[in-house]
Amino acid sequence: MSGCRNTPVLKERGQREVFCGLTGIIWLHRKMQDAFFLVVGSRTCAHLLQSAAGVMIFAEPRFGTAILEEKDLAGMADANAELDREVARLLARRPDIRQLFLVGSCPSEVIKLDLSRAAERLSSIHGPDVRVLNYSGSGIETTFTEGEDACLASMVPVMPATDEKQLLMVGALPDVVEDQALDLLARIGVGPVRCLPARHAADLPAVGPNTRLAIAQPFMGATLGELEKRGARTIAAPFPFGAEGTTRWLKAIAAAFGIPESKVDEVTAAPRARAEKAVAAVARDLEGKRVFFMPDSQLEIPLARFLTRECGMQAVEIGTPYLHTALHGPELDLIAEGPTISEGQDVDLQLDRVRAARPDLTVCGLGLANPLEAEGLATKWAIELVFTPIHLYEQAGDLAALFARPLRRRAILQGRHPNMMEAAE
User: Fold this and answer.
1) In 3D, which of 40, 220, 11 has the Cα closest to residue 118?
2) How many Cα atoms sit within 13 Å of 264 on the Cβ side?
3) Dist. CA 115–CA 118, nearest whole Å
4) pLDDT at site 425
5) Domain end: 271, 302, 333, which one?
């Protein structure tokens, strides 16, 4: 069957229902172990991050908020002088910081606080020990996962230059998943392999015309553009979700380095078999079920490919905040024609389509899930798909289970599941 690459895209521009880009800090501050994220924003920004991270009062996280008070917003105080003072206090208290991100928010954007110039000024003051960069996580400009994209894009201009032939794996992965990817690539014979973001500031990778890019996250549009300006070239491939996606991703990388598919098959035979077995055990609860994706994280297209091809589900609509052909094209090639492909959001119109279709499962944000559940529709929180390790072979069964649990729960509540104890587990 032909794919969906040439399917007309339904483009909607209306009210959105998503988290702002600040939430990317929650996984980035864990990934970059000597970085600090200083949000220049309001108390609302601080409460959002504190709630999303679940940080207890005695914890020492690698993020914080420089709170803009009423006098800052009214122009009665020199915000730049206050920012310089707070950064100096922070670095004196936390000498372990080697990379500081000034993160813009809605309030700082509204008052036109120029954080790029502030970052340059603070770099000259505190460098070379501390690298100061800036990006916007404002909900006015960014949605959910775009915060990570903006963060990584801000790092590209300061990456050293190199002519070395290398692979650059782009996108923050949990450490255990990143280690799995590096191990597979090493056994296949791909190398050297660098990661963006690196775990430590001193390990910031270099980039150049012989750098090939293995994109690990489907929301890296801005970062991809910046890296290509530095001469790097992208390896077009589906994303490493599920057994099929991971195998195709690895084979595309191997081909770029002149390594035959047979080597990939040899190295991946055992983990791929484990992944296929794990997915098959869960797919019996998903097969034949209809799924509707509301736009949230830009993970929707590769996840729809995984669910339709490996779990036997039928996609009704696949919505994504932004459709980036260079990133999502290989995924669309694999999704059979049939579902509506939508970009952007007009939440009221999309809810009308959900209610008309009454899918077995709707993947959506937290704000929409409870109302839809009250209307008798099973939902899956999209945010959980970002915070949970779901890449590569060893996580394939867990990925399928994330979608099966809401259906099992609903079947239990309705007394329809054939094995109540097994479903509860």
Assistant:
1) 40
2) 21
3) 5
4) 45
5) 271
Is 180 contained in some domain? yes
Residue tagged 């915060």 (tokens): 147
Angle (nearest 5°) at CA 278 between 276 and 279: 65
Q: Which two tokens stand for residue 357?
A: 């279709």
pLDDT band at 179 (very low <50, low <70, confident <90, very high): very high
**105 close to 41: Cβ distance less than 8 angstroms:** yes
Total of domains in the chain: 2
Are 25 and 133 in the same domain? yes
Q: Is 376 left (phi over 0), alpha (psi -120 to 50) or beta?
A: left
Let me know: does 361 contact 406? Beta carbons within 8 Å: yes
Distance CA 47, CA 347 (A): 25
Give the model's confidence band at 133: pLDDT under 50 very low, under 70 low, under 90 confident, else very high: very high
| Residue 423 reports pLDDT greater than 50 | no
Whole-model pTM: value is 0.90
Q: Which of 247, 271, 295 is the last residue of a domain?
A: 271
Output Rg (C-alpha) for the chain, integer angstroms: 22
Sheet bearing 35-41, strands edge to edge: 63-67, 35-41, 99-104, 131-136
**Please, which pLDDT band fits residue 109 given cuts at 50, 70 and 90?**
confident
Question: How crowded is residue 424: how many other Cβ atoms within 10 Å of its Cβ?
Answer: 10
94: left (phi over 0), alpha (psi -120 to 50) or beta: beta
CATH label of the domain that carries residue 55? 3.40.50.1980
138 and 28 in a single domain? The answer is yes
At 413 the pLDDT is: 75
Strands 99-104 and 35-41 turn out to be parallel
Confidence of residue 420 (pLDDT cuts 50, 70, 90): very low
Instruction: Give the whole-angstrom CA distance, residue 87 versus residue 372.
Output: 44
- Note the maximum CA span of the chain: 67
Which structural domain range is residue 228 located in?
166-271
CB distance 376 to 414 below 8 Å = no
